[in-house]
């Protein structure tokens, strides 16, 4: 499938934005200035971006605790995200959600989620809304190999098939649920699980943007055409720990270094598009520079933005009470 | 206006709101019933106790959705649908089953609006049966409204009669926040006059089912009826009671409770939920904190023991608050004499 040049450029920019956003958080978190804890998406950028490149604002996604990448890929503003992570009133959730609850319903982002397996049931509901309201939308649940074992996820695969929902279940399989390997914690295979619930299964290499884009395109088209849900299994590598501060003693010494060397989706993307003559390296360098400026500005702004006021504590528990 | 049962009043509220607003949908286990059965698609049950009977016929299977027996996925789906344009009414059947889907209520639906900085609206209603008195034993008889009341972001409704059920359910469906609507299963056949046209009873506004001068009784759901029976008996003995039906435990009409206690100086709370951290303790704390000086006797709570709900009729009868126990509590509070302070 031919991907439009503007789509490629937008996708490259989104992947670079995620990478720089997360690398910067890695640095800033170590200073102690960011409250709470953060889970970084570095290494997995092509999954969120390759999937979301096939979606519009009318489509809906639900994310995970490792949600920054999905937010950026779905179009949530970087400045508002950074301010949220710094706990500022200018944050996309006014400083009341933080890293694990970034949401922007206006662009179809139903939220990162602090509960493993929290998203798939919600996506069944969003898909039901798309189907009932006949708006042509598709709902996509991103969840990890860890969440793939949650009862809520397995129930959702069943319900989506029973109701023939326009839903795509994206298993982002980075090989670890927290500190426990998927090879230990996941019995059987994701493929057999999809088959068990009567839905098509597609897998792809998550470091290859083009492979994800192609696979997600097929899955989303299937769902959008009313043919029911699909499972998309994306094989990924997580470059940082489960959370920042995780020493990753459960991983072999060279595992992450190998991933960074051989499975860097941005490097692979650049090589492919420059060798194909689609872009000059300098064009992509310009994107990198622009993104670096954007991230720098977001951090400077977030640090300078106002903190929530005491009245905010009581606001927005209910629409009306 | 015509005589309608508690069951019919709820059915009518659902039907009228579904006619009024095409985004209102029903989902739950056997809300229609019969899907996939060898007899073909039909309205076989209309809910396990027949509350949603006939709705499939009028609204079709795109708005009356039978679910698999998988509470986490369909209650979560109801929450997800509510933030994306529908107004789902999800039936949890027995409230005890919340153990299978509490995350979707407590961590998802209840918190969207606050966590997302006020950007989400979650117009979700979860209906469930509750209460003992049906020999349904420990896993089908609990009165878990304190659990939901404890969670910020939820509204909790306990109708005390057919009239109340219809008006409160219509309000619940029109509400933009997640509402837990709890129906005492012992009441489904109770009848009274209920208007045929739709009407909404606002949340957070208590109903005084009678006004008296001596003792204030606060009761919830089916207990309101028992409290009024006790008050009838007490009236004959010259003791005059106010009976308050708060209608909703969240929001709670604190002002009405405090005003009535100020008038009577005595308070009895009747609550069929487990006695620790329940509505009776909550209201007792409220009155102790805000109206201590108006009290002329200790607050009394008529509540079950701290046990699971038992099965055998003789034990279940002992377990539940009764007219006799309410009468005894009121009599005891009237007998109390405050010691002269030196």
TrEMBL record, chain A:
Annotated Dehydrogenase E1 component domain ranges read 14-309
Pfam families in alphabetical order = E1_dh (PF00676)
Q: Which UniProt keywords apply?
A: Oxidoreductase, Thiamine pyrophosphate
Asked if the Swiss-Prot or TrEMBL record annotates the protein with the keyword Oxidoreductase, the reply is yes
Q: Does the keyword Oxidoreductase apply?
A: yes
Organism domain of life: Bacteria
Q: Which CDD domains match?
A: TPP_E1_PDC_ADC_BCADC
Gene Ontology molecular function: pyruvate dehydrogenase (acetyl-transferring) activity
InterPro entries per record: DH_E1 (IPR001017), PDH_E1_Alpha_Subunit (IPR050642), THDP-binding (IPR029061)
Needs which cofactor? thiamine diphosphate
Catalysis: reaction(s): N(6)-[(R)-lipoyl]-L-lysyl-[protein] + pyruvate + H(+) = N(6)-[(R)-S(8)-acetyldihydrolipoyl]-L-lysyl-[protein] + CO2
Q: Name one GO biological process term.
A: pyruvate decarboxylation to acetyl-CoA
Q: What does this protein do?
A: The pyruvate dehydrogenase complex catalyzes the overall conversion of pyruvate to acetyl-CoA and CO(2). It contains multiple copies of three enzymatic components: pyruvate dehydrogenase (E1), dihydrolipoamide acetyltransferase (E2) and lipoamide dehydrogenase (E3).
Name under which the protein is recorded? ABC transporter substrate-binding protein
> What organism, scientifically named, is this protein from?
Komagataeibacter intermedius AF2
Automatic annotation (TrEMBL), chain B:
Signal sequence annotation: none
Gene3D superfamilies cross-referenced by the UniProt entry? 3.40.50.920, 3.40.50.970
Which GO molecular function annotation, any one, does this entry have?
Answer: oxidoreductase activity
Q: Which InterPro entries match?
A: THDP-binding, Transketo_C/PFOR_II, Transketolase-like_Pyr-bd, Transketolase_C
UniProtKB keywords: Oxidoreductase, Pyruvate
Which Pfam family would be a valid example here? Transket_pyr
Q: Which residues form the Transketolase-like pyrimidine-binding domain?
A: 4-190
- List, alphabetically, the PANTHER family matched: ACETOIN:2,6-DICHLOROPHENOLINDOPHENOL OXIDOREDUCTASE SUBUNIT BETA, PYRUVATE DEHYDROGENASE E1 COMPONENT BETA SUBUNIT
Supply the name of the protein. Answer: Pyruvate dehydrogenase subunit beta
């Amino acid at each position: 499938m031919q991907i439009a040049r503007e789509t490629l450029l937008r996708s490259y920019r989104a992947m670079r934005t995620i990478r720089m956003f997360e690398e910067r958080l890695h640095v800033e978190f170590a200073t102690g200035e960011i409250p709470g804890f953060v889970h970084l998406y570095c290494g997995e950028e092509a999954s969120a971006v390759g999937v979301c490149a096939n979606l519009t604002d009318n489509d809906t996604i639900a994310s995970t605790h490792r949600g920054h990448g999905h937010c950026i890929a779905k179009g949530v503003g970087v400045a508002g995200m950074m301010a949220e992570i710094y706990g500022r009133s200018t944050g996309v959730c006014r400083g009341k959600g933080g890293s694990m609850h970034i949401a922007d319903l206006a662009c179809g982002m139903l939220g990162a989620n602090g509960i493993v397996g929290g998203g798939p049931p919600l996506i069944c509901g969003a898909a039901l809304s798309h189907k009932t309201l006949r708006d042509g939308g598709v709902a996509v649940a991103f969840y990890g190999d860890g969440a793939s074992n949650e009862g809520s996820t397995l129930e959702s695969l069943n319900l989506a098939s029973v109701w023939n929902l326009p839903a795509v279940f994206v298993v982002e399989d980075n090989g670890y649920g927290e500190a426990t390997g998927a090879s230990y914690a996941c019995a059987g295979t994701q493929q057999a699980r999809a088959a068990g619930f009567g839905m098509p299964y597609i897998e792809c290499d998550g470091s290859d943007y083009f492979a994800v884009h192609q696979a997600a395109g097929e899955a989303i088209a299937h769902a959008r055409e009313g043919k029911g849900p699909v499972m998309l299994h994306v094989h990924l590598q997580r470059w940082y720990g489960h959370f920042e501060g995780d020493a990753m003693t459960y991983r072999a010494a060279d595992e992450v270094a190998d991933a960074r060397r051989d499975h860097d989706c941005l490097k692979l993307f650049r090589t492919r598009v420059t060798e194909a003559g689609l872009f000059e390296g300098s064009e992509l360098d310009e994107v990198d520079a622009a993104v670096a400026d954007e991230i720098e500005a977001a951090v400077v702004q977030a640090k300078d933005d106002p903190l929530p006021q005491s009245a905010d504590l009581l606001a927005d528990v209910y629409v009306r009470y | 206006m015509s005589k309608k049962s508690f069951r019919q009043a709820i059915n009518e509220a659902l039907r009228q709101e579904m006619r009024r607003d095409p985004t209102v949908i029903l989902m739950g286990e056997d809300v229609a019933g019969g899907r996939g059965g060898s007899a073909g698609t039909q309205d076989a049950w209309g809910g396990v106790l027949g509350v949603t009977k006939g709705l499939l016929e009028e609204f079709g299977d795109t708005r009356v959705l039978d679910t698999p027996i998988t509470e986490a996925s369909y209650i979560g789906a109801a929450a997800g649908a509510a933030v994306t344009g529908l107004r789902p009414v999800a039936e949890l059947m027995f409230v005890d089953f919340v153990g299978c889907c509490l995350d979707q209520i407590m961590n998802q639906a209840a918190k969207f609006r606050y966590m997302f900085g006020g950007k989400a609206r979650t117009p979700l209603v979860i209906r469930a049966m509750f209460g003992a008195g049906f020999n349904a034993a420990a896993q089908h008889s609990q009165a878990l409204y304190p659990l939901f009341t404890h969670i910020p972001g939820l509204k909790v409704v306990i109708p005390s009669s057919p009239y109340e059920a219809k008006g409160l359910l219509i309000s619940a469906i029109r509400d933009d926040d997640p509402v837990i609507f709890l129906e005492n299963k012992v009441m489904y056949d109770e009848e009274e006059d209920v208007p045929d046209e739709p009407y909404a009873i606002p949340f957070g506004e208590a109903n005084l089912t009678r006004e008296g001068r001596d003792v204030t009784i606060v009761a919830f759901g089916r207990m309101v009826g028992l409290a009024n029976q006790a008050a009838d008996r007490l009236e004959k003995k010259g003791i005059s009671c106010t009976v308050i039906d708060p209608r909703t435990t969240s929001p709670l009409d604190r002002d009405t409770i405090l005003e009535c206690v100020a008038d009577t100086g005595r308070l009895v709370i009747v609550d069929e939920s487990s006695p620790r951290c329940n509505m009776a303790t909550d209201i007792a704390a409220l009155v102790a904190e805000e109206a201590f000086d108006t009290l002329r006797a200790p607050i009394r709570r008529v509540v079950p023991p701290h046990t699971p709900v038992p099965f055998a009729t003789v034990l279940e009868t002992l377990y539940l608050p009764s007219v006799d126990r309410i009468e005894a509590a009121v009599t005891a509070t009237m007998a109390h004499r405050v010691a002269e302070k030196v």
